[in-house]
Automatic annotation (TrEMBL):
Keyword Cell inner membrane tagged: no
Species assigned in the record: Lactiplantibacillus argentoratensis
Keywords: Cell membrane, Membrane, Transmembrane, Transmembrane helix, Transport
Subcellular location: Cell membrane
Similarity comment: family membership: Belongs to the BioY family.
TM stretches of this protein: 12-36, 56-75, 82-103, 123-143
Record Pfam families: BioY
InterPro entries in the cross-refs: BioY
UniProt-recorded name of the protein: Biotin transporter
Membrane topology value: Multi-pass membrane protein
Top-level division of the source organism's lineage: Bacteria
């Protein structure tokens, strides 16, 4: 890869990190029965994976989480600080870091971007961006909040309708953006 391409990828990565930050300006919506809000910010994680792929998607999310860990108030509701990673939402944040790697790997294995089957891309985001994140998030929530795993998993059902809409929208937005901007991914 040339220097020029690397600079281009890093610029695009920084822009996606900025997008994740902007999505955090929308305040979280409390669900009441668990201390985990409905957020828009996870749509930025889906977009990072869909636009940047495994490597740069992980860097974009890692950069965002690194800034949060340093104490910048970038999570929905203006929260930040390393302690958040040990709080009730810590599992979701760790899963956010892993999601672009998983989504990108599944997209590569299935050749979802080159196949033209948009539903394959949507299915991958649902599986690795929603289900995977919810299972990891709920598992840590169960430990942290002294709930049963079943109760934690079931309570995550509250996120599904919104996440399915966000995940599907992210795929369609990313497909349109990729048609205009070269992210160095398969067409
Ligand atoms: C935080 O701001 O501390 C992280 C919030 C994590 C929210 C999770 S992500 C998956 C699920 N979908 C949502 O809308 N909320 C939860």
């Amino acid at each position: 890869m040339t220097n020029r391409q690397t600079i281009k990828h890093l610029t695009q990565t920084a822009m996606v990190t900025a997008l994740i930050i902007v999505l955090g300006f929308f305040p979280g919506i409390p669900v009441g029965f668990i201390p985990v809000p409905i957020v828009l910010q996870n749509m930025g994680i889906f977009l990072a994976a869909e636009l940047l792929g495994r490597k740069y998607g992980t860097i974009a999310v890692g950069l965002f989480l690194g800034l949060v860990a340093l104490g910048l108030p970038l999570l929905s509701g203006g929260r930040g600080g390393a302690a958040i990673f040990l709080g009730p939402t810590g599992g979701y944040l760790v899963a956010w870091l892993l999601a672009p790697m998983l989504i990108g790997t599944l997209i590569k294995i299935t050749r979802a971007m080159t196949s033209g089957y948009w539903w394959l891309e949507v299915g991958i985001v649902w599986l690795a961006g929603i289900l995977f994140v919810d299972v990891i998030g709920a598992s840590w929530l169960a430990v942290q909040s002294h709930m049963t795993l079943t109760a934690a998993l079931l309570s995550n059902g509250a996120f599904l309708p919104g996440d399915i809409i966000k995940g599907t929208l992210a795929v369609f937005i990313a497909r349109r953006v990729r048609a205009i901007v070269d992210f160095g991914l398969p067409a």
